[in-house]
Batch of 2 targets.
Target 1
Amino acid sequence: MHRDLLNISYSEETISACVRGLGQRLAAEYADKNPIFLGILKGSFVFMSDLIRACDFPLEVRFLTASSYGSSTVTSGNVSVSGAPGTEIAGRHVIIVEDILDTGTTLAKIRDMLSAQNPASLKICAFLDKAECRRADISADYVGFTCPAAFFVGYGLDYAERYRNLPYVGVLKPEVYE
Ligand code: 5GP
Ligand code: MG
C-alpha cells in the first residue's frame, strides 16, 4: 500500500469483479443500442478503460473535461466544462461515465447540458457514489460502490494530480492535504 494512504478501501481484485458485474448489467440494457460512453475527464479514464473492456457489445467512447476541485479536497461548486459533444448525441443512447459522484454539482450541470441535445436516453454510471454528500438532485443509474464521505485517491482519482496510477482505491491521510 502507498504510504500516503490510511487504508485500501477497494482492492484491485474487488474493483475488477465489480466492473465485470457492471459490464454484464450494461449488456442487458445496451447490447443492441450502440451506446456512447461519455467519460468525464480526467478522473474517469481508468474506470472507462476497464468498463468498456467488460462490455461485450458495440459501443462508442467520447470524453469531456470538467473541473471543479483544483487542488482542494472540497468541491468548489464552480464547474467548468469543455469538449462537450454537440448535436452528434441527438437520438443516441448516452451513458455518462464518472469516477465519483459527490455533491452532484458537476454531473447535474453536465446532465442538463446533454439533455438539451436530445439524446435517445441519458444515464449515469459512477464508479463510486458518495450518496450521503449529495446536494444536487441527481442519482446514478449504475453504481460500482456506494462509499462513505472520505477523500479517496487511486484508480484515476487524484489529489493535486497525484495517485491516479494506483491500481486500487484508498483514503488519503489527512496530513497529506492539511
Ligand atoms: P461533485 O460535483 O459531485 O461534488 O464532485 C465530483 C467531482 O469531484 C468528481 O468527479 C471528482 O473529480 C471530485 N471528487 C469528489 N470526491 C472525491 C474524492 O473522494 N476523491 C477525489 N480524488 N476526487 C473527488
Ligand atoms: Mg471528476
Target 2
Amino acid sequence: MPDKIQRIKGTNDILPGETEKWQALERVIQTVMMRSAYSEIRTPIFEKTELFARGVGEDTDIVSKEMYSFEDKGGTSITLRPELTAPVVRSYIQNNLQQIAPTTKVWYHGPLFRQERPQKGRYRQFYQFGAETIGSPFPETDVETIGLYWEILTELGISDAVVLKINSVGDEASRETYRQVLREFLRPNLGEMSETSQRRFETNPLRILDSKDPGDKAMTDHAPKLVDYLNESSERHYKSVLELLSSLEIPYEQDDRLVRGLDYYTHTAFEFTSDVLGAQDAVCGGGRYDGLIEELGGGKVPAIGWASGTERLLLVMEALEKSQSLTGLDCYLAIPGDEQRPTATTLIREWRRAGLSCDTDLQRRSLKAQMREANRQNARFVVILGESERKNGSVQLKSMETGAQSEMSIAAALKMMLGQA
Ligand code: ATP
Ligand code: MG
C-alpha cells in the first residue's frame, strides 16, 4: 500500500463546515469595506525577496528568520509573501494609483507564509485581511482606518471581547530625541541584555522595547516613555486621534510600550488583542507608515493600515461561541415518504431561486435521520412535506429556534422563511 501523503506542517485544510464560517466572515468584511468605499486589491502570492527586505526591514523577525525564499530557475530570489503592506505599496507605486485619486483606500484578504514554530493560532500558511489608506497625513484618516476594523468587530458581535491598544511613535525628529534618551537609560545595563537587543542598541534601540526576552522586558519596564518625548506636532496628531476615537465611542487603552521599530513607521501604532486567545493574543496590528512609500521608490506619500489574522479572529468567534451564528441553512426540506420526492425536487428549486439556502435528503433515509441532519446543518426551519399535506397543497413548518410547528400553505411557509410574514 502506498503511504498516505500528509499536508505540510503548519498548514491547514479548511474543510466543509469551516469554509461556511470563512465565507460568512468574508461577507462581513466585504460589506463593511464596501460601505466605507474601500476597494479590494489582489497582488501576487510571490514577490522579489528585495521587496520584503526593504519594505518590512532586515532587522525584523519576519525577514531575519521567517521567510520562505528560494531562487527560481532564472536565478531571481523570490519570497512567498509573509505580509501584504509591502506588496500593496509596491503595486500602488508600480500602477501609479496616486493618479486616480488623492486618497487610495484598499483592502485585501489572502494567504501568507512564515516559517514559524506552529502552535495554536500560529501557522506557516495563514490568512490575513487588512486595509491600507494611502495619501492622507491627517488624524481623521487614522480613525477612518482603525474604525473600519472596529466596524467589522461590531458587525460580528465581538467588539466587547477585543481591546484596542494604541500608542504614538511620533515623527522622525521625536524619535531621534527619544533614541538618545533611551540609549542613555539602557547603557549601564547593556552587557546584561539579550544578544539581539545588544545588536539593536546602536542600530534600532526602539525595537528593544518590543523584545520578548524576559530579562530585556524587566530592564525596559521603567524606561522613559516615547510619548513623553513627542514634539508639538506629533503630540497634536496623537491627541486628535484619541479625541476622534472617543467621539466614535471606540474604547482604547494607551500602551506606551507598543512600538513599530522601523524608520518608516510614524505616529499612530496600534494593536487589537483579546483575552480569550491565551498566549497569541493579538488579532490585528497596524500603524501609520509615512516613510515606507518613499523607501520603496515612490513619492513622499503618507499612509496607514492594519492587518488582522483571519484564523485568530475565527478563534475569538469560536471561544465566544459566536461562530455557529455564521453558519446554517435557511431551510431543510424533510421528506417522510419517497412518493413526495418529485414534488420536493421542484419545491426546493423554487425556494433556492427565492434566495433561501435549502438542503434536502439524498439518501432516502427515515424522517428521524433527516431531522438529525437538519440539526447538524444548523437549519433555521425544517419543512416536512408529508403525503396528506401535499394533497391539499400544504406543509408542516417547524422553527428550529422556538420548536413551534404548524401546518400552512406552501406560499405561507415560503413567506415565513423569507422573513416576510
Ligand atoms: P506576533 O508578535 O504574534 O508574531 P506579528 O507582529 O508577527 O505578531 P503581524 O505581522 O503584525 O504580527 O500580523 C498581524 C496579525 O496577523 C497578528 O496580529 C496575528 O493575528 C496574525 N498572525 C501573524 N503571524 C501569524 C501566524 N504565523 N499564524 C497565524 N496568524 C498570524
Ligand atoms: Mg510574528
